[in-house]
TrEMBL record:
Organism: Leptospira ryugenii
Protein name: Glycosidase
PANTHER family linked to this entry: ALPHA-AMYLASE (PTHR43447)
Binding site for Ca(2+) 2: 191, 233
Record lineage: Bacteria, Pseudomonadati, Spirochaetota, Spirochaetia, Leptospirales
Residues reported in the UniProt entry to bind Ca(2+) 1: 134, 225, 231, 266
Length: 523
């Protein structure tokens, strides 16, 4: 794991100099301006309708300009038809077998899933499969074996001697009957569990005898290898072989373009290097991968990027945190620092930029919502700048209503309004205007802006101005002399004209964003 921030930064910069050319060759050119959507949220109804809804929406998503969708975990989970997909039971059951009290998953059936992915491919939209390779849950039977208890908040501190325990570690998948895989899981395929039915009141992380907590994981709680359920032993050859087999099977079935990888901070940092190398060799192409290493510590993210050798992007959790803080600061956040300590600023080639996701939405485990008024500003920052690969959240696009308990035990009714009309405008601006050189004007406590000067294939320019406080005004250069501009967002009704040098004083209303495009150019 990383030592100090300076050492990490030095090592990564040295590594980047040697490797950045080959990595850039694997990435789409900025002319492409790809945009991803996370096509689900935690509280999407458990009615089996998502895959059908996706099939109905595919044409509209393509027209708006989405180039890729991150789809939710499609396999059978512990919670059956109610499982979001992170309580992994059987990776090979995509809503095909009667297991965990249901055939379909929360999102529908296997045939509906495969059909939806096929339609996406026909429209030129890439598919990224969400997969959890960290743990298994909902075992079919208990087993007895020896294990050592460790303190849940300090996995370096033993709570006693090795002893016999009983835990739910046996997986036979009786409903699937060996279709697609004959692998049966037992306690030897895991390295730790958190429950002993022989002593259920004793709270501990139980490490199997002869096993070790994995290295190259996050150092929270001393060693954050264990997260939940039955933690996979990523050093076991049968585990490695089976996970590679599942990846190949998934690629054959769906023709997917890549993966969203869950819980990276809990898995040995070297495992995915082996896994992705095997899958790319099998597919004979580059596979796009974005990983969830949820930490706000930039040096740790930098270490993971270097350790992965450029194989994957990471979600920019620090940028999300800045958005969350700014949205709740009532105009008292220094917008000059909004990009500080983020992947978007320091390592943009590896940054998937987000405003929200399923974990940060209200009432979830990492709850840190961005207030509604600020979201158009935040989305403008990830969609219209040159750095990062932006990802729009399903609930922000379509809206969401749900009821659940908060951390205080009280019941709350949540309403997330749809920003679809504004996001469609920002998506259009991204496709047609957000190209070429970028000039930044990040020089005011509340009001910041930038311009994009266009490129040979996208010659029209763009000016963006936003303020989290009062009305803003800023002189910015567009490269287009004597050109009239209009506010695409409709916030400011009057046109603005640049002078003979291509400069103009652009404006925005308080607490809003204005996107100034060349007047008379259709979008």
């Amino acid at each position: 794991m990383p030592l100090g921030a300076e050492e990490i930064a030095t090592e990564l910069k040295t590594w980047s100099v040697d490797h950045i050319g080959s990595i850039e060759a694997r990435k789409p050119s900025e002319e492409f301006n790809g945009t991803m959507m996370q096509f689900f949220h935690w509280y999407y109804p458990s009615d089996g309708s998502l895959w059908k809804f996706l099939s109905e929406e595919t044409e509209n998503l393509a027209k708006v300009g989405f180039s890729a969708l991150w789809l939710p975990p499609a396999y059978k989970g512990l919670g059956g038809a109610n499982d979001v997909g992170y309580g992994v039971y059987d990776l090979f059951d995509l809503g095909e077998f009667d297991q965990k009290g249901t055939v379909r998953t929360k999102y529908g059936t296997k045939s509906e899933y495969v059909n939806a992915v096929k339609l996406l491919k026909e429209k030129g939209i890439q598919t990224y499969i969400d997969v959890v390779l960290n743990h298994r849950m909902g075992a079919d039977f208990e087993e007895e074996f020896e294990a050592t208890p460790y303190h849940p908040q300090n996995r370096n501190h033993s709570l006693g001697e090795t002893r016999k325990i009983r835990a739910w570690t046996g997986f036979q998948f009786p409903g699937r009957r060996d279709q697609y895989s004959t692998m049966k899981w037992n306690w030897q395929h895991f390295d730790s569990v958190d429950y002993n039915s022989l002593d259920p009141n004793f709270k501990a992380i139980w490490k199997m005898k002869g096993k070790d907590f994995e290295g190259k994981v996050d150092l929270e709680s001393g060693n954050f290898d264990y997260l939940m359920g039955c933690d996979l032993d990523m050093n076991h050859p049968e585990v490695i072989q089976e996970l590679i087999h599942w990846g190949k099977w998934s690629l054959d079935l769906l023709g997917a373009d890549g993966f969203r990888l869950d819980a990276l901070k809990h898995i040995n940092g070297d495992f995915f290097n082996t896994w992705l190398d095997a899958l790319e060799a099998y597919a004979k192409k580059d596979l796009y991968c974005v990983g969830e290493y949820w930490t706000y510590d930039l040096p740790t993210l930098a270490w993971y990027i270097g350790n992965a050798g450029g194989r994957m992007d990471l979600f920019d959790a620090p940028l999300h945190l800045n958005f969350h803080k700014a949205s709740r600061s009532g105009g008292n956040f220094d917008m000059r620092t909004i990009f500080d300590n983020t992947l978007m600023k320091e390592f943009p080639l590896f940054a998937v930029t987000i405003v929200e996701n399923h974990d940060t939405q209200p009432l979830q485990a990492l709850e840190s919502p961005v207030e509604t008024w600020f979201k158009p500003l935040a989305y403008a920052m990830i969609l219209l700048r040159s750095q990062g690969y932006p990802c729009i959240f399903f609930a922000d696009y379509y809206g969401a209503q749900y009821v659940d308990k908060g951390k205080d035990g009280n019941q709350y009714e949540i309403n997330i309004p749809s920003l679809r009309s504004k996001l469609d405008l920002l998506m259009s601006a991204r496709q047609f205007y957000a190209h070429g050189p970028q000039y930044d004007y990040i020089d005011h406590f509340n009001c910041i802006g930038w311009t994009r000067l266009g490129s040979p294939s996208h010659p029209h320019s763009l000016a963006v101005l936003l303020s989290d406080g009062a009305e803003g005004r800023k002189w910015m250069e567009t490269g287009k002399p004597n050109q009239r501009y209009r506010d695409l967002m409709g916030e400011c009704p009057d046109a603005i004209q640049t002078n003979e040098h291509g400069w103009a004083e652009f404006v925005c209303r308080g607490g809003s964003v204005s996107v100034w495009i060349e007047e008379g150019i259709p979008i």
